[in-house]
What we know:
Strands 2-1-4-3-5 form a five-stranded parallel β-sheet. It is α/β, with parallel strands linked by helices. It has two domains: 2-154, Alpha/beta knot; 157-187. Helix content is 50%, strand content 19%.
Amino acid sequence: xxxxxxxxxxxxxxxxxxxxxxxxxxxxxxxxxxxxxxxxxxxxxxxxxxxxxxxxxxxxxxxxxxxxxxxxxxxxxxxxxxxxxxxxxxxxxxxxxxxxxxxxxxxxxxxxxxxxxxxxxxxxxxxxxxxxxxxxxxxxxxxxxxxxxxxxxxxxxxxxxxxxxxxxxxxxxxxxxxxxxxxxxxx
Length: 187
């Protein structure tokens, strides 16, 4: 499985670089990870709507040049907010039914272009709050790592391992019971 993260702007803060390096190392056990940074455009504070769109489109074209045939997840404030468990399920679903390669895209300070948002298969939001896009890369890596640990029934999440086993058994029972009931109805 391959995970690619494309982000706009060069990461400069040492503490973020160290965190990203740590999670990149941890993730190497689960996937092939590729981190790509594309150049950001200078964005003065008093930009018109037209200028904002121009900058987002330039950055968007740089992102598009790095895309391949992969499942595209755009990080966008208007995206769907999900739990860590739901992200783990989403990654599992993508790799089971869509693609073995997932590309997460983090926009620059102005966000993502309409082109990127339209090309995305899924829009993910971590919060209604705005975070620095450099920090989002670290948060995203941590959540991807957490998702792999959850999917592999490994003790990283707040639940002890035995709770995952219990939850799995309960969900399996619910799923099989639902299927039995569903199959008993005549359509």
